[in-house]
From TrEMBL:
GO terms for molecular function: oxidoreductase activity. This is Nitroreductase family protein. Keywords: Flavoprotein, FMN, Oxidoreductase. Pfam families: Nitroreductase. The keyword Flavoprotein applies.
Amino acid sequence: MKTSPDTHVPLTGYADLPEDDMLARALAFHDRMAARRSVRQFSDKPVPQDIIEACVRTAGSAPSGANHQPWYFACVGSAEKKREIREAAEAEEREFYSGRAGEEWLDALAPIGTDADKPYMETAPWLICIFAQRRGGVREGEDRKNYYIHESVGIATGLLIAACHEAGLATLVHTPNPMKFLNRICNRPETEKPFLILVAGHPADGAMVPKHALIKKPLDEIAGFL
Ligand code: IYR
């Protein structure tokens, strides 16, 4: 690999921790993240914008193809916009649940108990609408091809979910299909593809989660060490 003082700077941000500390931190982080649940009953308690901004900054620190950062986070907090998004999403979901999904898919969703009604899209204080940019570049105003767009936006979304959880916010990944309506409502160009909506806020008092969601595959099923 080529490095030179003109193009590179020394790496910072990595402490050489004792292995005991590394393990303790990894286990503590696991405990924290494993307590995350997808929440479908939200409180209307407001969440200040600066908390969402901090979480989105974490998302924006994600690695991406050629560092083009091919994402845009439209953070919708206005009651009118949330209503528009809910109405458009529910219209798609009604089609989905009344046939478009097909039997196998509906069967897979049955233990979660979802249906076409999405009241939380208005109750929750924030709908973070995430867009994937086909073109862009590393600097504002550039119009270059982006690479590994879905991988990059997926990684950024994972960091966003972790950041929200760490801040004490409940989230739900929501993917109405199709969701082209988001471009119009969020004023985003046609070159951007809606990726998903992350609902964020406080959980409602007495919120419930499906037992199905508590089933997590053991390590030996999800990993091998070669
Ligand atoms: N988007 C629909 C359906 C749905 C699909 C999957 I895959 C889920 O894990 C959950 C729901 C909905 O939000 O109801």
